[in-house]
Design brief:
The complex is a heterotrimer of chains A (541), B (236) and C (331).
Chain A: H1 20-24, H2 29-57, H3 68-87, H4 90-104, H5 112-134, H6 148-152, H7 157-184, H8 197-229, H9 242-274, H10 283-297, H11 312-340, H12 349-371, H13 374-380, H14 384-414, H15 420-447, H16 461-491
Helix pairs in contact in A: 2-3, 2-4, 2-5, 2-16, 3-5, 4-7, 4-8, 4-14, 5-7, 7-8, 8-9, 8-10, 9-10, 9-11, 9-14, 10-11, 11-12, 12-14, 12-15, 14-15, 15-16
Chain B: E1 5-7, E2 10-12, H1 23-58, H2 60-69, H3 72-97, H4 101-130, H5 159-197, H6 207-231
Antiparallel strand pairs in B: 1-2
Chain C: H1 16-47, H2 64-93, E1 100-107, E2 110-114, E3 120-122, E4 124-128, E5 132-139, E6 144-148, E7 153-157, E8 163-168, E9 173-179, E10 192-197, H3 199-207, H4 215-225, H5 228-231, E11 250-252, E12 258-260, H6 263-271, H7 294-306, H8 318-321
Parallel strand pairs in C: 1-5, 4-10
Antiparallel strand pairs in C: 1-2, 2-3, 5-8, 6-7, 6-9, 9-10, 11-12
The chains are: A mainly alpha (541), B mainly alpha (236), C alpha+beta (331).
Chain lengths: 541, 236, 331
């Protein structure tokens, strides 16, 4: 049943109940995706408020805008909320949940009830952590380095640690669900190499989630135990080793950054092909590069520890592997760019976000080459160069991809269009604001400004003021999509099944889709992104 | 005895969940799901095994002293009990496969019973280490790491007093985590036993029994590693 | 680089130009790559902008040749970066033999330093220009990090172990010293200066103030005050091993293992002596953990090191450089 462009379809997943019960007890992956969307948007707002506090304090060199304790709690809150409660779930829990069954022709994920459980676990973890942050706060940094966090911190370390521990299981269960779904529930004819690259990206991400998260879970549990019962694992006065904590922590937290970026890369692949109306260039290479990133990503963790006292030879091993992990990301970037060649490029909002992603992820990824370099990392580590590097990837990369994906699939999720001109304006604001915020930080870092500083030498002030100005613009930039997307829920024009003319099974359903997605099980016979060629006749949509 | 439900003309097994296209697909998906979960569990325990490896390499004598102080006989008894419970669990799965409902219930209850014995022994083991730490007065014999730890009971002092506390931290963390997994397993086993009693399983469909069996065997295997690493160091 | 708007700190050490050169190389390579991709991307996006809804782009699946090219060339470039970076890192990690040793103890929230001649400083380090300085770094509490941007050096101060760093200042002046590992409330106040002086001025500075006690003398005093001398007599008849000449030598332990008696080993033997007892001796030495602080330990080490036979105390024996490679901790 198709929908025409003037009305929404008669029956769709949002129509089956609007009371609380129909949402809180749903097992529909689409509704769960939406519940996650609301939750993580709230967490993003909280994380952004913390960021605002941080940048406001850094306007003046003497730190007079707030006490050192308050500042330390602000940057810790920013990191904890953004990493564990926004970035890690973001695309997989919202777009992944919503789209993966649709993309593979299934009625739902393999374990719909576990999917709902995942969301509840996330909420409990978030609530507990927020409670810890708001009553007393946390000032260890999101990295919880010992022995500071276990012996010296005077804040709600144990409670926050437990909250994060709990939230980790949400991530694990989502990953587990995706792996089984992708393996076992593909529609007839949908072989592995006909899968959309969005699915490949989530498959690789899920492997990392399942194998990496348990390690940080047990590590953070040990921190909590040490806080509560004074066990002494990481306390050198009792034979413990603080560096062991760093190894255990980074063993997860490095692959975690690939959890944050891989799904976004999947989104980029989907948008770039649709808005070039052309097959993706190098499909197999892009698919395999996702797996390569997941695998090699587990082997580079100690590049966060080059100045901790490791031997030169260990450091060389990790530096070499770090350079190696850059290669698959480079391959993706080249392939996306090549897809544009002789395409039919449409400059709509999702595609603008693709341009932003490629441009900014490039900077983030290339600055990783500076940091993986042993000779340079000694100077650059623990400075604002690092802060700039990961924000270029997380915000310039991951969040741009997230926004692009939200805009791309918004018509499918809600059945409605947003106002295109607002989309373009917002993306411009975000792009400008972002660069103004974070590019100065590369310079600050090379000049030697350490991170997590409440007050700093006067000569760093100009760059900090520029950065705060940029953050203000960036904040406004993010408020706009929130506003006009919400507005479209009420007033947006019905979009129709496939407003973009995209390939992919999700676009063969109505917008919004029915609860059970497909009336008949689709059978796949074509390669992915089979846009009609020059000499072929084509059917619309 | 499989009942076939009717749904608008189509018939399918009552246990088939609607988002799956066949019971076969559902079984494969559930099985893969349990294996992925177990992979995750291996990494979860893996962090502790990693920490154990590091510290044992650094402090071999302290670890030896700590291990010596545990009763290997109790540990061995518990190992036999747990292996026995894996045996009864395997028998339960087999019984489900051949459709003997009563035996399924019986074997699962036996598994729970043996698990209970294991946990009871652990309670006793923990008790004799923890009880001396409570209250005021002398804490002689306290083996909980921290201010009240009684290193003299192990004839240790100085650096090794701290190092053996790391051993005991790992002892409590690893066996505690393991015991937690068993405690969680018990209500799950009870649920499966209940469903079996109600006739939900058959030779065509007994996947939940298989998968819970898989989980239980995994918990057993973790103990098979824990026992020698914690109880048998230095016993040549 | 305009001094009005600097893009890099001053280059004040022998290794700073190396680091900057490496930085510029990578900046150049990555800059060209980034520029290239931006230009190509925007060019394609504009050149192939959709002008009609009837456009049907060609079917292009990919190109193995291109994939190989843009995999191998980046790998080669990164290989160069890796090798060059490793070389610089080696250089940063190997202090010259004639470096003078300064001990650094980080403590919330100050840096405590001591010169080989005994002068102590807090949050400041005066050094002569043109002289190699080796830093033995540790912490009394949390992890800190000793960072001097102008020298391009940084090393974590980790409690329970010694980390080494070194520099040779090439320009007089005062340079920022920062703590670069978050350590609590006043982390951003744990800053100071490294003051590089002409050699003559440095001598004057050394001589100024009350005559300080060298760490060796302090250590000798502690050795007597704490009664170490009772068992570690200067002849071979004590209940403890003879310490004369032991520093830097290989000793055999009761466990059969052989180990170099470097700074980390001496520290461990003072604080927790039962850990590694020398073969042939009873484990009767009392533990001094809690009775001596990190600076006193460093003084005792300096004294024991000075007991090496005939030549007077020469700083920076090769064994001490191994302190970083050893130590009772994981990498």
């Amino acid at each position: 049943m198709t929908s025409d462009r003037n009305t929404l379809p008669a029956d769709h997943y949002l129509k089956h109940g609007w009371d609380l019960k129909s949402w809180l007890l749903t097992t529909d992956h689409k509704r769960i995706g939406l519940m996650y969307l609301v939750s993580i948007t709230l967490m993003f707002a909280i994380g952004s408020l913390y960021a605002g506090l941080v940048r406001w304090n850094l306007l003046v060199p003497d730190g007079s805008h707030m006490s050192a304790e308050a500042y330390n709690k602000a940057f810790t809150g920013h990191g904890v909320v953004m990493v564990f409660f926004f970035l890690i779930p973001s695309i997989p829990a919202t777009l992944g949940n919503f789209l993966i069954p649709l993309m593979i022709g299934a009625k739902d994920l393999a374990f719909p009830r576990i999917n709902l459980l995942s969301w509840y676990i996330y909420i409990v973890g978030a609530a507990l952590t927020m409670w810890a942050l708001l009553t007393g706060g946390l000032e260890t940094g999101w990295t919880f380095y010992t022995p500071y966090s276990t012996v010296f911190a005077e804040s709600n370390v144990a409670v926050a640690a437990v909250g994060i521990f709990i939230a980790g299981f949400s991530s694990i269960l989502t990953g587990l669900n995706f792996i089984v779904t992708i393996h076992k529930m593909r529609a007839p004819g949908l072989t592995w190499f006909r899968l959309p690259l969005f699915v490949w990206a989530h498959y690789a991400t899920s492997i990392i989630q399942v194998l990496g998260t348990p390690v940080v879970a047990i590590t953070i549990l040990l921190v909590a135990l040490e806080r509560l019962f004074h066990f002494g694992f990481f306390d050198p006065n009792r034979g413990g080793d603080p560096i062991l904590f760093q190894h255990l922590f980074w063993f997860y937290s490095h692959p975690a950054v690939y959890i944050m970026i891989l799904p976004s890369m999947g989104v980029i692949s989907e948008i770039v092909t649709c808005f070039s109306r052309k097959r993706i260039f190098g499909y197999t290479f892009i698919a395999m590069s996702s797996l390569a990133i997941a695998a090699i990503g587990f082997l580079v963790w100690a590049h966060h520890m080059f100045v901790s006292g490791m031997t030169v030879y260990s450091a060389m091993v990790f530096s070499a592997l770090t350079y190696l992990v850059a290669v698959p990301s480079a391959i993706k970037t080249f392939n996306w760019t090549a897809t544009l060649f002789r395409g039919s490029v449409q400059w709509d909002t999702p595609m603008i976000y693709v341009f932003c992603f490629i441009g900014l992820f490039l900077v983030g990824g290339l600055t990783g080459l500076f940091l993986g370099n042993l000779g340079l990392d000694v100077h650059l580590t623990d400075t604002y160069f690092i802060v700039a590097h990961f924000h270029y990837i997380m915000v310039g990369g991951a969040i741009m991809g997230y926004l692009g994906g939200l805009h791309f699939w918004w018509p499918k999720i809600t059945g409605r269009n947003y106002i295109e001109s607002w989309g373009k304006v917002s993306s411009l604001l975000v792009f400008v604001g972002f660069n103004l915020t974070f590019f100065p930080q590369f310079v600050l870092g090379y000049l030697g400004m350490p991170r997590r500083y409440h007050a700093y030498p006067e000569e760093f002030q100009i760059l900090n003021v520029l950065s705060t100005a940029g953050a203000t613009i960036l904040g406004f930039g993010y408020i706009f999509p929130f506003s006009y997307l919400t507005h479209s829920l009420l007033r947006g024009k019905p979009a129709g099944d496939n407003p973009w003319g995209a390939k992919g099974l999700e676009w063969t359903t109505q917008s919004p889709p029915k609860t059970h997605n497909f009336d008949e099980v689709p059978v796949v016979t074509e390669e992915p992104y089979h846009y009609a060629a020059e000499h072929e006749d084509h059917a619309r949509g | 005895m499989a009942e076939i439900a009717a749904h608008g003309g189509e018939t399918h097994h009552p246990a088939l969940q609607h988002h799956f296209t066949s019971l076969e697909q559902q079984r494969e998906a559930s099985t893969l799901g349990m294996w992925v979960f177990i992979a995750q569990e291996i990494l979860f325990f893996g962090g502790l095994f990693g920490a154990y490896t590091v510290y044992r390499t650094l402090y071999p004598e302290a670890f030896s002293a700590g291990s010596h102080h545990l009763s290997w006989k109790i540990g061995f008894f518990n190992t036999l009990v747990l292996i026995g419970s894996s045996l009864t669990m395997a028998m339960g799965v087999y019984s489900a496969a051949i459709g003997k409902k009563n035996r399924v219930v019986g074997f699962i209850l036996a598994t729970i019973l043996l698990g209970g014995v294991f946990l009871g022994v652990k309670y006793f083991e923990y008790g004799e280490k923890i009880r001396p730490c409570l209250g005021d007065g002398s804490h002689a014999g306290c083996l909980v790491p921290g201010a009240r730890f009684d290193a003299a009971a192990l004839h240790l002092s100085g650096a090794e007093a701290g190092q053996v506390q790391i051993y005991y931290s790992l002892y409590f963390a690893m066996t505690g985590l393991h015991a937690l997994h068993m405690i969680i397993g018990v209500p799950i086993l009870l649920t499966i036993a209940w469903f079996a009693w109600r006739g939900r399983y058959s030779p065509e469909y007994h996947t939940p029994v298989e998968l819970v069996g898989l989980y239980w065997h995994f918990v057993d295997i973790v103990w098979i590693f824990l026992f020698p690493l914690l109880y048998l160091i230095g016993h040549h | 680089m305009s001094p009005a708007f600097p893009l890099a700190p001053e280059r004040a050490s022998s290794v700073a130009p190396e680091v900057d050169a490496l930085f510029l190389f990578i900046l150049g390579v990555t800059g060209i790559v980034a520029l290239g991709i931006w230009v190509v991307m925007l060019y394609f996006a504009i050149r192939y902008r959709r002008r009609s809804e009837d456009e049907r782009p060609p079917v292009i699946h990919g190109s193995l040749a291109l994939e190989l090219t843009w995999t191998i060339i980046p790998l080669l470039l990164m290989g160069v970066m890796f090798v060059w970076g490793s070389k610089v890192f080696f250089h940063l990690s190997r202090p010259p033999d004639d470096a003078m040793t300064v001990s650094v103890v980080g403590k919330r929230w100050m840096w405590k330093l001591q010169h080989p001649t005994g002068q102590r400083e807090v949050n400041e380090l005066h050094v002569p220009v043109g002289r190699a300085v080796k830093l033995v770094i540790t912490s009394e509490d949390t992890i800190h990090s000793f960072f001097v941007p102008a020298f391009r050096i940084k090393k974590d101060a980790v409690p329970g172990r010694y980390n080494l760093a070194w520099f040779q200042a090439t320009k007089t002046g005062a340079y920022h010293l920062f703590c670069a590992e978050y350590c609590g409330t006043e982390h951003s106040k744990m800053i100071g200066r490294v003051v590089v002086m002409e050699p003559e001025e440095y001598q004057v500075w050394l001589a100024g103030g009350p005559a300080p006690e060298s760490p060796v003398l302090q250590g000798e005093k502690l050795f007597t005050d704490l009664n170490c001398i009772t068992c570690h007599r200067m002849d071979d008849a004590g209940r403890g091993p003879l310490l004369k000449g032991i520093f830097g030598r290989t000793v055999k332990l009761a466990s059969g293992e052989e180990i170099v008696a470097d700074a980390a080993y001496v520290r461990e033997s003072i604080l927790t002596p039962a850990a590694k007892v020398v073969a042939g001796y009873q484990p009767v030495m009392p533990a001094f953990q809690g009775q001596v602080n990190e600076e006193q330990v460093l003084a005792l080490i300096a004294y024991i090191e000075s007991l090496r036979t005939p030549t007077p105390s020469t700083p920076a024996p090769p064994a001490a450089a191994r302190t970083q490679a050893r130590g009772a901790s994981t990498r």
